[in-house]
Amino acid sequence: MGVFLAVAFAVSAAVAGAVAVVSRLRRESPLSGVNTFMGAGTAVMSVMGMVQVLASGPTGAWLAATASTVASAAVVAGVLCLSKIVANRAWRVSRRAVLLLAADPAAAAGLALTNPWHHLLFARAEPAGPEGMLVSAPGPLFWPHMAYVYVLLSVSLALVVRARRQAPPGRRQVHAWTITAFTPPVAANIAGMSLPVRLPDLTAIGLSVTMVIAYGALVRSLPQRQIQVAHGQVFDTISDAVGVIDRSGRVLNVNASARELLRRAGFPDEVTGKSLHEIPGFGFALSEDGSTDQTVTDVLGRGVDLHVRTSVVRDRRGQCVGWVLVTRDVTELNRRRHEAEKANVRLREQLETIEALRADLAEQAVRDPLTGLHNRRHLLEALTREVARAAEEGTPLGLALVDVDHFKGINDAYGHGGGDVVLVHIARLLAGEVRHDDVVARYGGEEFVLMLPGATAESAWERVDELRRRVGRAAIGVGGGPLSVTFSGGVAALLPGQSPSDLLRAADEALYEAKRLGRDRVERAAPRSPGAGAAPRSPGAGAAPCSPGAADTGAGAAA
């Protein structure tokens, strides 16, 4: 029995040591360091078990039990670290964790080394087995130590089982291997206690099997570790600031862009593990998927515009487990947009100014500069349009041509300035007495044309004759005294088949007739067939001679 146990412990030590060495050489995974530590501790436990089997006195058995107890406490601490890494790939063994987990091994070492004086950890050395092996019997404080060990093992197993339930189906192999690794030491411990003869602790032999399984978990984790590294590299190359927040609002991870953004915002410290509300300037509420805009102040006192998009992370049951925040610095984009908006406003203002100038120029092009009335070009365009519409709709269209009586004598007596005053006065009176749709134009020299849509020959004659009487009653201040002027007019109505020139000719002939009959009167055009009659006379015929070229300067000018 003794030889068999010694060989078993020796094989266990060799296996655990080999796993520790190989794990040390493979540093691709965080599990490598933990496996190395656990393998070394299991190898120590196995060697101490072999010493206990071969020890011939109580001192050797006591020293072997002391070293084995300390090593077992350390190995169990390593099992907890292994489980936390498997459950959370981002977890790492921190200095604080090392100090906390070292408390029990340190206490066990102190009690074991001072045991000969108080016998609280080991009561005594008892013979075990048929060959007289010596085994340390447990003392009063041995059982609290073992309770602590089994609590750590239970917590470790619970962490891995919980992580396996939450992991995607294709990523549960490492969890399964780790759960399996808990079985051999428990089975070895139960087997040692259930035998009818007292034996040294066989847990080390089970742990050597655990180390083989743990190494399998290490090998299985390497592809996932490589994927994790690749994910981390991709995560850090994203130009937007990305942060992962858990359900409690604690920051789990941020990429390089987020760290740079936080540094610019005056928060250079590590934010992982901190609450989101502890980060200055980022006090917005986490909710469902959505986006928001906010402005923070950087270390230079400048405003930084941020667009924050929130995405909820859910587990397989649809429960919210956290959020992913994607933050983009849109300061430059907003600045360019504001500049573009200002440029567009300026451009619209310039276009409106240009359009106003264009409209003003266009209006000036069809206005007589002296009287402000439409000029002859505008009249002909409007007359062509109205003749076509009246012919199409069958509506009447009246046209009147009026001429200031004795205008040459006014120019001779008062000069061209006096003549201009008379023309402006008559133009204002004519323009003030017409309807919205009517057109009043300076036709040439002292002649004016009134186009009266909807007016028959009779109604057009009545309106123009009323205008004649008003002009005759109005006194014009010229040369320091009042001056009364009159005009003669000819009225024509559009006949079927007439063209604009036919209508103008008819009104002109009626005007000529009014002048022939003594002036200061309005005559109607005689009915005639379209196209018949003499050619229309030049503007101003029957009065003072006038050339179209003189229209641009002073009295007697045509537009």
Textual characterization of the structure:
The chain is of the alpha+beta class. The chain has four domains: 2-235, Up-down Bundle (Rhopdopsin 7-helix transmembrane proteins), CATH 1.20.1070; 241-329, Beta-Lactamase, CATH 3.30.450.20; 337-364; 366-552, Reverse transcriptase/Diguanylate cyclase domain (Alpha-Beta Plaits, 2-Layer Sandwich). The protein has 16 helices and 14 strands. It has helices spanning 2-25, 31-54, 58-87, 95-101, 103-113, 115-118, 142-166, 173-181, 183-194, 203-237, 256-264, 331-365, 376-393, 407-432, 457-473, 500-516, and strands spanning 122-128, 133-138, 241-246, 251-254, 290-297, 303-314, 320-329, 397-404, 439-444, 447-453, 475-478, 481-484, 487-493, 522-524. It has a five-stranded antiparallel β-sheet with strand order 4-3-7-6-5. The protein has a five-stranded mixed β-sheet with strand order 9-10-8-13-14, with helices on both faces. It has a two-stranded antiparallel ribbon with strand order 1-2. Helix 2 packs antiparallel against helix 10. The longest helix is centred in the middle third of the chain and has 35 residues, at 203-237. Residues 222-227 and 531-559 have low confidence and may be disordered.
